[in-house]
Amino acid sequence: MTPIPFLEGPMGKIPITQPVVMGILNITPDSFYAGSRFSNNSHCLNVAAKMLEEGALILDIGGQSSRPGSERISAEDEWNRIAPAVSALKKEFPTAWISVDTYYSEVAIKAISEGVDIINDISFGEDDNKMFSTLANKNITYIGMHKIGDPKTMQHNTEYADVTSNVLHYLQQKVSEAQKCGLNNIWVDPGFGFAKTPQQNFQLLRELNQISTWNPSLLVGISRKSMIYKTLEISADDALNGTSFLHAEALKNGAKILRVHDVKPAVECITLWQNLYP
């Protein structure tokens, strides 16, 4: 019997029997989609309130861009960027599930001390070898993603014998490693747009059920990404329709969390998919 995915945090555990939405809140000046950037707490809280009202279960706070070519900032700078937002969101929305997007163990443990429920690590412990030991036996949810290299080099690291098989093997190895270190609730993210060409992204999405069959705790982040806007020769600003179309494919192939910039369309996509496949 396939295990039911769940979220775990300071509020306890909840089963994820149907797909849910994670809304993106970037406290950054340079994320690839300008509509997700927030420079002050007031703006961030207003958008967070709208996301929750529209049906987001999770709010994901990021303090640095991971778009191709972006500059890395220090753990101290990242925490200084997001700390006021984390505190404000926990105070304003105490029952919301809050995620922090970081690959720094130092930021992760500070976030957990503030009551954050989820650590979303795009490096799956590769960029900070203390991440797994830091989070060991904590009652939180950990999300690990596939990528090769860093934002400056990853788009040169796209050589795979078979992208889906390679990504699956990597995720299996990292989950095993994390479990041995004491992490208990591990979700996986195939890393669309990270060290993959557009066609590799499409293959991975088409064959996503190979990953969800192994681990149903699956997050997909394709919102407004270059696989959409470069293929359609448009901008990220115009990529919502393409995002919704690919979200439907992700749901069909087992995604349980959609990480998105636009909550209402994603919730609508899930509702229609549930009615199409009751």
Task: Describe the structure using short key phrases.
two-stranded antiparallel ribbon, 278 residues, 10 helices, alpha/beta, TIM Barrel, eight-stranded parallel β-sheet
Would you mind describing this structure in some detail?
This protein is an alpha/beta fold. It has a single domain (18-65, 76-273), classed as Dihydropteroate synthase-like (TIM Barrel), CATH 3.20.20. Helices cover 41% and strands 16% of the residues. It has ten helices and ten strands. It has an eight-stranded parallel β-sheet. Strands 1-2 form a two-stranded antiparallel ribbon. Helix 1 (41-54) packs across helix 2 (75-92), helix 2 (75-92) packs parallel to helix 3 (105-113) and helix 9 runs parallel beside helix 10. The longest helix has 18 residues, at 75-92. The mean pLDDT is 92.
The major sheet is characterized as:
8 strands, parallel
Tell me the domain tally.
Answer: 1
CATH topology descriptor: TIM Barrel
CATH class, please? Answer: Alpha Beta
Report the principal-axis shape.
globular
Assembly classification: single chain
SSE ordering: EEEHEHEHEHEHEHHEHHEH
Strand content: 15-25%
**How many runs of DSSP E, i.e. beta strands?**
10
Instruction: Determine the mean pLDDT.
Output: 92
Alpha carbon gyration radius: 17 Å
**What's the CATH architecture?**
Alpha-Beta Barrel
CA-to-CA gap between the ends? 19 Å
